[in-house]
Amino acid sequence: MEPSSANTGFIQQQPIIKNQFHEDSTSPPSLLSSSTPSLSSLGSAVLAPEIFHWITDSERNTPYLRGSGRDAFGRPSSKQELIVSEGWRKLQEFGFEQGVVAINYDPTFSAQNGPYSRLVQFLRCHLWEASCANTLCPAAMQDGAARLLQRHLTTPELVGRLSEEEKRVFGNAYDHLTSRDKAYAWTSGQWMTERTGGSDVSQTETVAVYDPFPSSAGPDAKEEVPLALASKEESIPLGPWSISGFKWFSSATDSQMTILLAKTRPGMGVSAFMAPMRRYNPELVSVTGEKGGEELNGITISRLKNKFGTVGLPTAELELKGMRGWMIGKEGEGIKEISTILNITRVHTTVSSMGYLGRGIGVAKAYALVREAGVGKGRRLPLYKHPLHMRTLAGLTSEYHGLMLLTFYTLYILGLDEHPSSSSSPSQISSPSSASPPSPLHPLTPPPQLVSSLLRTLSSLHKSFICHTSVPLSFGCMESLGGVGYLVNSESEHLNLSRIFRDACVGAIWEGTTDVLASDTVRALKHPMIGKEGVEALEWFVGTGLGLAGGGKRGEVERVRKVWEGLKRKLERGRQEELLPEARGVDT
Hints:
Elements: H1 20-23, H2 36-45, H3 49-60, E1 64-66, E2 81-83, H4 86-98, H5 107-113, H6 117-129, H7 136-154, H8 156-159, H9 164-177, E3 188-191, E4 207-210, E5 229-231, E6 236-237, E7 241-250, E8 257-263, E9 270-276, E10 278-285, E11 291-296, E12 299-304, E13 316-328, H10 334-370, E14 372-376, E15 379-382, H11 387-418, H12 448-479, H13 483-486, H14 497-504, H15 514-525, H16 531-548, H17 554-573, H18 576-579, H19 583-587
Parallel strand pairs: 3-8
Antiparallel strand pairs: 1-2, 4-7, 5-6, 7-13, 8-9, 9-13, 10-11, 12-13, 14-15
Helix pairs in contact: 3-4, 6-10, 6-11, 7-9, 7-10, 10-11, 10-12, 10-14, 11-12, 12-14, 12-15, 12-16, 16-17
């Protein structure tokens, strides 16, 4: 018998994490054979050692504000600086170069994939999520802002309302948002939350005033004065709206632009605005005496939030005083405009939950291959042969598979909504390899008139259900590693399931909590104008799905049919105020 020491005796073999694109049986197969090489390559790249070094740096060197807002002589400093870690910047640049957002807006990619573009894009996000240290959060808002601007720049009735200057400003922003060039690409903020309530934007206290003349021109100015510049190099002007207020929970504070909501007149409702984060100030004086430079665009960062998870992501309270911006869409229709972004950011949030859970299951499976456990009378078994442990992992995997099916079906509907002119027959979509996309989704392709209604319902429903359900499942993965799972394993960052669990918890909170989105589902289905179409879309979905079930599942089919018929009766006969207390039951 030999005593063990710090370096001798039993030392656990290191689990080997494998490429999730190949090892995760739940991931959908490549819809086009031309996508397989890039997806396989990305699955390997996200597990590279430098990626995990950047994650650790992002977690340890959290964002901070440089200075106190005043210079050494007590004068207010207009050049407030937010500092993020090098690891955060490197991970964000990796995402730009991989095109996790830009790929969906590539004309060639979009033409080849049609309504399947979103599926392929989000499969890339799924592989990247657990390694990105939350840089996909600003990327989600970048994606939503790009889609919003794309609608206004390409939809005939919308682009016709834009001035030539607005077309140039919006087009410039769109080009930045859809670029893979790390030196040119932008992310975007999405500022709605205020102290009056997270998702209750009707109580917004931010106010926008139309003021096309700079204050220096004076109220009696007779001639139009050119607006100051958001970017001197690109000669992009600041907007004619002056926005002031206080935003309580603003993610992506290091972004280059933002989409936000503000009120313009009493009784008008909220309007949507696009604003650059920074502006050029010719009066700024550098420490060497040079005049001119960039400063925040009427923004003061009051403080950064100290959060349970997502610690590398800069989230802040922001005070706006005379922030210059451009209105998007019609005055008072900000909620309609922001819904375009929400449809996308909610999907991103759901995919992030699935990305965390998929990585967690991958780590748990890898650990089961190298760890042994006692089973009594001196016997030991590898965990992958331990019946109870494998039953637990099988249960986690089964739940994960069901959640992934709902996630990627929602993505398919999003793709159909963004490509309304595409044929609903997968066999008619071309690809360079001449291989047609597989057909299993085709029977569940809704009639064109039901696509928007089904997306409207699924947008809230899938996010509330999946993000809430995935949290205990992610904890189960962490638990499967025993005490090692509870450690903050920055020494072995690829096994750090405690970080993944902390970050996964936020999915059920931001972009609408479970209760908020469950209530939103009920309100959508009871809406006097669109509710009937929503119920009709669900009726089609449930009926078609049950019709595809095999004959050996008759009992399950009848149980689901009975549940749906009961829910449908409630939706048709019950009043909204009666259904809201049961909204979570509707979602499940």
